[in-house]
Amino acid sequence: MARNRGTAYQTLASDLRTSILQGKYADGSALPTEAELSAQHHLSRQTVRRAFQELVAEDLVYRVAGRGTFVAPADRQYLRQHGSIEELMGLSLDTELELIDPIGARVDVAAAGRLRTTGDVISTVRFRRLHDGKPFCITDTFFPLEVGQQLGDLVELTVQGTVSQITVIGVLDKRLESPITEADQSITAVAAPADIADALGCDPGAPLLRIDRVYRDGDGRAVELAVSHFLPELYSYRVQLRRNTP
Questions:
Q1: pLDDT tens for each residue of 173-206
Q2: Dist. CA 209–CA 137, nearest whole Å
Q3: Among 134, 89, 115, 86, CA closest to 230
Q4: Pick the CATH number of 5-71 from 3.40.50.300, 3.40.1170.60, 1.10.10.10, 2.30.40.10
Q5: pLDDT tens-digit profile of 44-93?
Q6: Collapsing DSSP states into helix, strand and coil, what is residue 145?
Q7: Whole-angstrom Cα distance, residue 10 to residue 50?
Q8: Which bin fits 129, alpha (ψ -120 to 50), beta or left (φ > 0)?
Q9: Is 78-238 in CATH node 3.40.1410.10?
Q10: pTM (2 decimals)?
């Protein structure tokens, strides 16, 4: 069966992206040429070129006519394309989680309502995401009480100030009986609340990008609500849209 060209270039772009984020290619180093990747992956030059174009658009690489494609400097703006749960889990490849408020139980009627829990007591944790040592995101995460209790033994989520390379959904997914299969997402622009501004090092009222995600397991149960505030000068969010085809 012929390989779908769209899938082929996306798969190659994803493989190259992962290699770059894991440090397999140093800043400024050359990636394999179109001809080399074409032969290695049994793809057309056009497909390889389109994969490179994806990475250029994400500011992960840059191209020099007649010389090749090179890894962009690490101080670039942090930009990730998220099209799957796996890609969200991949944040641990090139960012760090710094724990601000350890996981614990509290009454939160609004979060409980969004998680559709039977009571108003939920588990919550606050952390900061760092890229190259710079904070670019603050996330408040909420769980049904019984779900949060499954994370209470993790040093990364219980000892304030701990810095680690985990994602909460990545850890949670391994502990749930039914894995995370989907997420509902909303994106808005907001003014920075005072506590968020202090944690991000910006002025209160500064514009932030807010992304809310409700994660559900295979049974359709809401297992996590993540509310994240991003500094727009350090973070860009990119989504690729396609037309439906018959």
A1: 899 999 999 999 999 999 999 999 999 999 999 9
A2: 9
A3: 134
A4: 1.10.10.10
A5: 999 999 999 888 877 788 888 888 999 987 655 455 555 555 556 555 56
A6: helix
A7: 9
A8: beta
A9: yes
A10: 0.70
Strand residue runs (E) in 132-238: 134-144, 163-164, 180-191, 207-217, 222-230, 235-238
Rounded CA-CA distance 200/191 in Å is: 13
Q: Which two tokens stand for residue 235?
A: 């973070």
Nearest to 167, CA basis, from 115, 244, 93, 117: 93
Parse the chain into domains and list their residue ranges: 5-71, 78-238
Residues 126/130/133/135 CA torsion (nearest 10 deg) = -70
Distance CA 75, CA 44 (A): 32
How do beta strands 78-81 and 121-131 pair?
A: unpaired
